[in-house]
Structure to design on (225 residues):
């Protein structure tokens, strides 16, 4: 079963608006990662947040983690058409290298 | 750094044929992962290696699938015989090792089995 479930499944916004995607997971984690996938391409790592962190920033990206609710959010501020992609959260399975990916959010940013 | 390299990028074959997908991980990375992505099932981990040793192959769908990593710079995923339901995009990824590490994905191989 999927460890991470993203919400919403799809999101359409205008350029300049903010986009927020959420991820819920089931078991305790050491870290949570967000990846981006452009159509026809492999996944690209965006940001990793550790279980002892609550918020992390990287450029226009802001990630939060609430371990009590087993949830994370990814905020993209001032979105651009080039941000159009699918976004996935991923969590390690136990103390292993194995990552379990969520179902993804398809983001469409209209110019 | 060339990143993770996969070949071929596209493969079209007929049912019953053998298919071999190839992957070269990033130099120095100790872990290698094979994933399959479909619209219906999303991204599934098939198998992963650490220091060339298979650690977890619980995601391999059936005996028709096999994977090898003969050395630190090369891995193969073989499907024999292939079936139409194997049609998917197959990704290889590597990481330096350790569960806190991010994974670096290759561009994928789009497999179509007719």
């Amino acid at each position: 079963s999927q460890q991470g479930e993203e919400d919403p499944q799809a999101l359409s916004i205008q350029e300049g608006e903010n986009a927020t995607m959420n991820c819920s997971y089931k078991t305790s984690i050491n870290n949570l990662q967000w990846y981006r996938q452009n159509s026809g391409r492999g996944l690209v790592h965006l940001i990793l947040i550790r279980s002892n962190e609550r918020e992390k920033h990287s450029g226009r990206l802001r990630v939060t983690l609430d371990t009590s609710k087993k949830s994370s959010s990814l905020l993209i501020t001032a979105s651009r058409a080039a941000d159009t992609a699918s976004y996935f959260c991923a969590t390690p399975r136990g103390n292993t290298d194995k990552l379990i990916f969520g179902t993804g959010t398809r983001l469409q940013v209209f110019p | 750094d060339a990143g993770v390299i996969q070949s071929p990028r596209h493969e079209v074959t007929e049912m019953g044929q053998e298919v071999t997908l190839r992957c070269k991980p990033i130099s120095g990375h100790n872990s290698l992962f094979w994933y399959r992505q479909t619209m219906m099932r999303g991204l599934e981990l098939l198998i992963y290696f650490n220091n060339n040793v298979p650690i977890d192959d619980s995601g391999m769908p059936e005996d028709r699938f096999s994977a090898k990593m003969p050395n630190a710079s090369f891995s193969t995923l073989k499907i024999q015989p292939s079936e139409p339901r194997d049609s998917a995009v197959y990704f290889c990824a590597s990481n330096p090792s350790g569960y806190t590490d991010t994974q670096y994905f290759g561009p994928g191989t789009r497999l179509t089995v007719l």
